[in-house]
């Protein structure tokens, strides 16, 4: 009981500290990236905090897995460094007994990570994609700065307005130049307002005129109007199949037959399995000799995490290119790591037991 309580409490402290530090680092880099995207016109400046929240939630599963791995390696390494491990080993607590306290402390983290990977992060990815698309496909009128000429996205129109009240969304003294293959039209109006009709956006003009010139016939017509509508954006909501795989729901990926969708599903399941494997692998990697001046176990543990994380990313590509089936990818990578982690703990236990028996025999 004392063994479980003491080790579990230390593991929780290490996990809390590691999680706070990693979240701070991730949010700092995410903030820099989000501000850069807002400055480059890819994200609405008003949505910076929302984009930062989505970015943080998207990276949270990896942060949780790494924080738990650091907590396991750090806690077990400290026991070796302070010679407490010798006490536990002498009292009949081999390394494999540490898996119990680790599992009892880490299972809520594993459960939360699974919920994030299977349901939450796909939602945040969808919201991020839709938020970017809404800003990129905002009406041409809303992208025009007062007193400046602004081209439409396809280059077929040029706008100039003197904006009115922002709350009413009215532009005053609107000028529009429309160019087609054999036609050029200049539209001027006293006021303009953006209106929605389904997924289509129209610019509704009042009190103006339209001057149309045919380049081939050299003819020109002028028409005055009290009301006129110009289509600025035509679009429809994207279906689930049109979204990138990382933004698709887990249920849709499981029912799909596309290899890329299977690759994304393997990546999500693999990160959950990988977090469990890393928690077990950290026990064997942290075992070290406290008399050594340099503890290379921590460096090796960090390298193992980097290599393993890249292998998880590679499995998505292997399955997406149909080099491996989902079962083959999961078993070849995560199954091998699970066997390696358990074998390393058993090897450490047998080695420690051999050295302990030799020490007892020499002193008796």
Automatic annotation (TrEMBL):
| Location(s) in or outside the cell | Cell inner membrane
Superkingdom field? Bacteria
The alphabetized UniProt keywords are:
Cell inner membrane, Cell membrane, Membrane, Transmembrane, Transmembrane helix, Transport
The cross-references to InterPro entries, in alphabetical order and at most eight, read: LptF, LptG/LptF_permease
Q: TM segments?
A: 12-32, 52-77, 98-120, 265-287, 294-312, 324-347
GO terms in the biological process aspect are: lipopolysaccharide transport; transmembrane transport
Which Pfam family is one of this chain's hits? LptF_LptG
This protein's membrane topology, according to the annotation, is: Multi-pass membrane protein
> What's in the GO CC field?
ATP-binding cassette (ABC) transporter complex
Q: Which NCBIfam families match?
A: LptF_YjgP
Q: What's this protein's name?
A: Lipopolysaccharide export system permease protein LptF
This protein's species is Inhella gelatinilytica
